[in-house]
Hints:
The protein is an alpha+beta fold. It folds into 2 domains: about 10-50, Arc Repressor Mutant, subunit A, CATH 1.10.10; about 65-145, Lrp/AsnC effector binding domain/regulation of amino acid metabolism (RAM) domain (Alpha-Beta Plaits), CATH 3.30.70. It is built from 5 helices and 4 strands, in the order αααβαββαβ. The protein has helices spanning about 10-20, 25-35, 40-50, 85-95, 120-130; strands at about 70-80, 100-105, 110-115, 135-145. It is elongated, with a radius of gyration of 20 Å. This is Leucine-responsive regulatory protein. Pfam families: AsnC_trans_reg (PF01037), HTH_24 (PF13412). It comes from Sinobacterium norvegicum.
Amino acid sequence: MLNTPITLSRIDRRILRELQQDGRVSYAELARRVGLTTTPCIERVKKLEKTGIIRRYQAILDPEPLGAGLVVFVQVRLSRTSQANFEDFRSAVIKLKEVQECYLVSGNFDYLIKARVADMHAYRELLGETLLTLPSVNESTSYVVMEELKETLTLNIAD
């Protein structure tokens, strides 16, 4: 993973925008869309992969038919904020398949979790039997999503 922004050419930025929209586009079609021939396009994509700008390719699934239609955000406060507690919590939360995202944040709580489950019953189980039993968890506040307005992993890549 890169830690500092890197300067990209206009063509590289176009490649990244196209791949964010369709990661399965053929090299020939990608090259056509960005105004290159296929070989230089492949070379640029491989370089973007090698430098870590492109981390991976992934299919985006519809969560509803897969039993993960309910989104819940959970604020978690640890009993004591220490490096050991952060590491213990981190190690435990990373293993939870229902947790899609987890961030260490500043403010009135320590972590913000995004989880997906089938329904409220499944969430009650996740909260009571799992999240509240994680190392050093003192309290939590939950926010159940009633309507998803926007969800994207697409980054805004300026020209």
